Amino acid sequence: MLTEKKRLELEKQGYRIVGNHSAVKICGWTRNSLRNRGMCYKNTFYGIQSWRCVQMSPALEHCNFRCWHCWRDISTAARQWTGPIDDPKDIVDGCIYEHVKLLYGFQGNVNANKKRVEQMKIPLHFAISLTGEPTMYPRLPELIDEIKRRGMTGYLVTNGSFPEMIEKLVGHEPTQFYLTLAAPNEEMFIKTTNPLTKDAWPRFNKSLQLMKDLNCRRVLRLTLTKGHNMYNPEEYGRFIKDLHFEFVELKGYVNVGYAQYRNTKENMPTHDEIKEFAEKVAKAAGLKYIDEKPESSVVLLMKEDFKGRIMDFESDLTGPVEIPKEFEQEKKGLPILN
Questions:
Q1: Three-class DSSP category at 300
Q2: Cα 19 to chain center, whole Å?
Q3: Whole-angstrom Cα distance, residue 127 to residue 152?
Q4: For 1-57, what is each residue's pLDDT tens digit?
Q5: In this predicted model, what pLDDT tens digit does every residue of 226-257 receive, in sequence order?
Q6: How far is it, in rounded angstroms, from Cα 111 to Cα 36?
Q7: 123 DSSP 8-state letter
């Protein structure tokens, strides 16, 4: 259970706690996009509207890995779920409410994009990636169904150590499924992720194989940290060559948050180093270099580019986005969200 001391610490860092085990935090790119100062790489690669994206977690203090590159607090790592299990609808309601509440001040910002400020009140995207390991949340398929039922997209990021939950996602897929590839071999994987789960490597490999059963956009995500896992790009390429995915993202480690206690700026690769590494991975895997976002030090590889990679969210929505209009706004002094 979240202690009051930990709650206050997280709120000071910009988190807002939702229920017993969920949280939101505003991404820097969300703020930038509201000020016309650029978008996140997911906008460049896939078209998401950064000003309408909720960065959240349903597993605030639940993660079984202690990765060297992680900017979160890894001291709360745990092998399994403990404590209460909140209802998915309550989580979505609470995350939208707290997210919009944190951004309401932009209505008075003279430098803000007025159209985007109005649109941000009705989110379109849930990035299930803020902190913790979301596949530990026992009701994850229902949460994804609830997000998509409201007309929003869901982007799920997992470390792949709970293949039994990934099996449950078949028929309840997110819009885009990310599996973090920390290393192409067991020795590097264990050193990089420092898992509490003893059989983490075979479980991870089972998750890789299960990706073929997911009816959604699938991504292999490499977070590359110099001195830890940024070695042997050709081995990465051979490892992923026959896997099932649409996209491969190679992103450089950033020395922020709690990761500063484990690493230094020397562990951060430059964008040029990421590009060079990506080109070698692509050659070994038979992939093509498709796009890049230097500001985020990330590169996109694919087998083949395809029409619709950059989604048109103005015309592709299947229905109106449902938001929690009566979620305590009047009691807390906020206007009803229209």
A1: strand
A2: 20
A3: 10
A4: 678 888 898 899 899 999 999 999 999 999 999 999 999 999 999 999 999 999 999
A5: 999 999 999 999 999 999 999 999 999 887 77
A6: 8
A7: -
- Match 């964008």 to its residue by tokens: 271
The token duo for 259 is: 């990761």
Single-letter amino acid, residue 37: R
**Contact in structure between 124 and 49 (CB atoms under 8 Å):** yes
- Output the CA–CA distances (angstroms, integers) from residue 290 to 108, 205, 279, in the order listed: 39, 26, 11
Please check whether residue 169 is in contact with residue 62, taking contact to mean a CB–CB distance below 8 angstroms: no
Class for the domain spanning 7-302? alpha beta
Domain residue spans in the chain?
A: 7-302
295 DSSP assignment = G
For residue 76, count CB atoms less than 10 angstroms from its CB and return exposed for 0-12, middle for 13-18, buried for 19 or more: middle
Distance CA 31, CA 72 (A): 20
pTM for the complete prediction?
0.91
Tell me if residue 153 falls in helix, strand or coil.
strand
Closest CA to 238 of 187, 286, 190, 186: 286
Residue type at 60 in one-letter notation: L
- Tell me the C-alpha distance between 144 and 155, whole Å: 9
- Indicate the DSSP class of residue 335: P
d(CA 91, CA 23): 9
